[in-house]
């Protein structure tokens, strides 16, 4: 599954960035990875739930969660082990895309004519976003015995956390007085701010807090499903 997800991610981003004429960097006329950092979160919305859907759903479905409970490991150790395994897979999926950065860097006129600060900020934001999606996926996997249900629920929550609050903030008829607050609740605003190259501790703290909340919820769900 890990190799498949990495392959799909690199294939889709490669096609959109270098092959398809409407989105190709070669036809864009500027040395920028903006299209990649716009596309990657949308791809992650589907691929990361595919990575995480088996984490606990399979354990509960096959009954091996009871076997895990008898081992000399705590629930936190199991949760964090599964979570960091998913996060490392996400980061390893992002790592080969540094070739895109190197290619665009060399293609610039003159060479190196690319906003390096914004690019590194975007990579940091993408890594934090992928880590947050992984926390959502782990939580959804703990909710159900069915991997497909866990996948669909995770896709919905990832999309909602990333995009929905932006859409709600634009509904001036209903949320005119709370548009800024709603925008700041969603992940997209913090991801975009990091993508500008402005590494603000508030945005990093937002993602860390988001991850901790969903890992705590995962712990709570597992305890409830195991009967305390």
List keywords for this structure.
13 helices; mainly alpha; globular; 228 residues
Please write out the topology.
Layout: H1 2-19, H2 25-28, H3 34-52, H4 57-62, H5 64-69, H6 75-94, H7 98-107, H8 116-143, H9 147-169, H10 172-175, H11 179-185, H12 187-195, H13 201-225
Description:
The chain has 228 residues and is mostly helical. The chain has one domain (2-225). It contains 13 helices and no strands. Helix 8 (116-143) runs antiparallel to helix 12 (187-195) and helix 12 (187-195) packs antiparallel against helix 13. The model has no long low-confidence stretch (mean pLDDT 85).
Structurally, the number of domains stands at 1
Distance between the termini: 32 Å
| Rg computed from alpha carbons, rounded to a whole number of angstroms | 19 Å
Residue share in helix = over 70%
The geometry reads as globular
Strand content: under 5%
Total count of helical runs of at least 4 residues = 13
Short account of what is shown:
The protein is 79% helix and 0% strand. With 228 residues, it is an all-alpha fold.
